[in-house]
Amino acid sequence: MTAGGAASTALPAFGQRWFNGRSPPQPVCDPSVITQSVTCLHGRLLVGSSARMTDDLEVAPAIAPTPRYLASGDVGLVTPRDFVYARPFTFKSGQVISGFTLRYETYGTLNATRSNAILICHALSGDHHCAGWHAPADRKPGWWNNLIGPGKAVDTRRFFVVCANVLGGCQGSTGPSSLNPETGIPFGILFPFVTIRDMVRAQRLLLEHLGVSELHAVIGGSMGGMQAMLFAIEYPSFVHRVLPMATTGRESAQAIAFNEVGRQAIMQDPAWNRGDYTKDSGPRVGLAIARMMAHITYVSDASMDRKFGRRKKENAPSDAYTFDVQFEVEGYLRHQGQSFINRFDANSYLYITRALDQFDLAHAYGSLEASFAPVEAETLIVGFTSDWLFPPEQNRTLALALLRAGKRASYAELSTDLGHDSFLLESEELYALVRGFLERDQPYVFDYEI
Amino acid sequence: MTRLIEKRTVDMQIIGDWVEPGTRVLDLGCGPGILLDYLVQKKQVSAVGVDLDFAKITACVRRGLAAYQGDMIAFMRAFPENHFDRVICSRTVQELADPTTVILEALRVGRALTVGFVNHGFWKNRLNSLLQGRKIRNEVYTTEWFESRPANPVTIHDFEHFCRLKGITVTRRAHLAGNWHKPCRTLPNLFAGYAVYDLTLQKRPAAEG
Predict the structure, then answer these.
(1) Domain that holds residue A90
(2) Residue A195 and residue A89: Cα distance in Å, rounded?
(3) Which residues of B touch A444 (CB under 8 A)?
(4) B103 SS3 class
(5) Tell me, what's the pLDDT at B149?
(6) On the CB side of A307, how many CA atoms lie within 13 Å of its CA?
(7) Angle at A396 between CA A391 and CA A401, to 5 degrees
(8) Quick check: A447 contacting B, CB < 8 Å?
(9) Does residue A448 fall inside a structural domain?
(10) Residue A444 domain-assigned?
(11) Phi, psi of B123 (to 5 degrees)
(12) Does the beta carbon of A205 lie under 8 angstroms from any beta carbon of chain B?
């Protein structure tokens, strides 16, 4: 253990990135659920000696010699901005909204030729805040802070990094919780159906607005990987490098099944009320259950076992014959669910999981090879051995289809036991790969005399 | 230049001569991509390498090469017949678990297959075994048995026998002397240190209906 070992006020180490800590946590339904469970989960996820999850323990600012947001290699304090598109936007479904807002962040500087931009695409429950800190008191930096920053694998001294909350999201971009200008009340389930393609088109409009004339790269994990691939397919000459991780060309029946259970948990909660609820109400129980279950799919049997095993909570009831929280893993999942409902909108969860389910490159374009036919970018796909949600096989399939289509594509597979969320891993190996892919721009000089 | 690099470059030069410019090349067991990088720069080939090791893939990606991490047989099975103009299997063949399948698959997905290997029948290798009574160790076989990958040493005679057995056509062969530098014309199985073969296989016409 390094720095994190000093802190004992920490929240659970993994999955904690989902809690964005921009504001103090709201009171949760059952405070006892978190107060104890969160202090005893110091087990850090280690792969070999060089890797750990990003969601590390907090170092209390008081004991840190310099504020974390001023640490070298960190983008520091960042402020999200809003891009307002004030013209009608037609979704793939044919439905139209009169305009939309995307909340986004940028790090680094766009160069004179406007050619050094890298777009980061977030996953289902992620957002635009992928690096840096919003305020010195923040509990956590952006969700990919380990990867993005000055001197890091995605080097903000060199690249202009853009990340936007997706259309249909709930972290500032237009989505089901936004006010419908026609009615003055939130869209709810009257919001148009969103597809990955709609998300990509909206981000393309943002990039135009920012004056980005080409993308050096587009990077994303999971749903972010889907967006990255679609960027290269829909805007071939705009994208030079594509780096999707832990992703798929279409979800398996199992992945759709998990999403459906999540949606049912939300929709069967009476408080969902057919999507008609206010900000302070809504299907909190359903959303929390959806999150608890989904979280299991983001990790692995091995990592959960290492982190929790069958350990009992410190204050577990001595009587084993109760349904109160007894095992640490129960407390942990309840905390995951509770913290999620304070930051995520249930309707957005329905819309975005639907977008995930409907994403099917082979179906949309005839075949995977046909879908990749227009791609001009160089692609690097990264799979993770323990990812059972979008398993290595599904990632390999993408690389093979790209190669069959005659494209320049690579596939690398990192051995981890952390499951789907492995793409957020702190791993020097992964950093070297990402940096190597992004920064090689001169032909390698052949140094052997023949 | 060290002796080892010199040997490597000779190997590369022969393969480089055989590769047609601008063609599609697959390298099985590509390592850090040195050969492919050379072929891309000298022959402008469209290249992809396959290797099992993450660090090797990283090295290829840094060179701007396309590389695939995974099993070479599974990789080749994902491609149609003649997808590649040439498949290269350089210094890998003796470490394959299933050389027959690899070679036949390579001849299916490639119009030609180039195989390079150290000739285990080279007289120094024979003598080394005979006199030492131990696993060969020299500048080519550098490791102790307990630190070596499982190897299936092959001689020139063994390889030619295999090609006859499988009906594989040898279109070119290069036998190099013990220093891997000059051509070896006499008794190659005894006097050649290294061998490079260019192979093709008549493909059966696809069954009708």
Answers:
(1) 3-439
(2) 13
(3) 37, 62-64
(4) helix
(5) 85
(6) 30
(7) 135
(8) no
(9) no
(10) no
(11) -55, -35
(12) no
Residue B68, token pair as written in the block: 């695939």
Distances (CA, A) of A124 to A166, A224, A314, A331, A356: 9, 8, 33, 23, 8
Sign of dihedral through CA atoms A65, A66, A71, A76?
A: positive
Which tens digit of pLDDT belongs to each residue from A66-105? 667 777 789 999 999 999 999 999 999 999 999 999 999 9
- Alpha carbon dihedral B14, B20, B23, B24, in 10-degree steps, equals -30
Domain count of chain A?
1
CATH number, domain of A429, equals 3.40.50.1820
Q: Tell me if chain B has a CB within 8 Å of the CB of A444.
A: yes
Report the residue from A429, A443, A446 with minimal CB separation from B54.
Answer: A429
A427 occurs within a structural domain: yes
Q: Alpha helix locations (H) across A268-367?
A: 284-298, 301-307, 328-341, 346-358, 361-365
Task: List, in order, residues 6 or more apart from B159 with CB less than 8 Å away.
Answer: B115, B117, B195, B197
Residues in chain A, overall count: 450
- Could you give the CA distance from residue A227 to residue A246 in angstroms, rounded to a whole number? 12
- Stretch B110-120: mean pLDDT, rounded? 95
Contacts of B13 in chain A (CB under 8 A): 450
pLDDT band at B8 (very low <50, low <70, confident <90, very high): low
pLDDT of residue A236: 98
Overall CATH class of domain B3-199: alpha beta
Task: Tell whether B13 is within 8 A of chain A (Cβ).
Answer: yes
B61 — contact with chain A (CB < 8 Å)?
yes
Q: Between chains, do A414 and B66 touch, taking CB under 8 Å as contact?
A: no
Best of A240, A379, A394, A448 to mutate (most B CBs within 10 Å, chain B): A448
Residue type for position B199: L
User: A288: closest CA among A266, A316, A264?
Assistant: A266
* CB-based contact A448 B5, cutoff 8 Å: yes
Provide the pLDDT for residue A320: 77
A450 touches chain B (CB under 8 A): yes
- Nearest by Cα to A382 from A237, A224, A145, A251: A224
pLDDT higher than threshold 90 for residue B141? no
Nearest alpha carbon to residue A157 among A244, A72, A54: A72
Q: Tell me the residues of chain B between 16 and 45 that have a Cβ less than 8 Å away from chain A.
A: 16, 34, 37-38, 41
Residues B127-156 have a mean pLDDT of 89
Give the angle subtended at the CA of B199 by the CAs of B193 and B203, to the nearest 5°.
160
Sign of CA dihedral B58, B27, B121, B163: positive
> Is residue A102, in this structure, part of any structural domain at all?
yes
According to DSSP, the residues that pair with A96 across neighbouring strands are: A90
Span of A373-382, B6-15, B173-182 with lowest mean pLDDT: B6-15
**A279 secondary structure, DSSP code:** T
Chain A residue numbers with beta carbons less than 8 Å from the beta carbon of B83 are 404
Q: What is the ipTM score, two decimals?
A: 0.92
φ, ψ for residue A343, nearest 5 deg: -130, -5
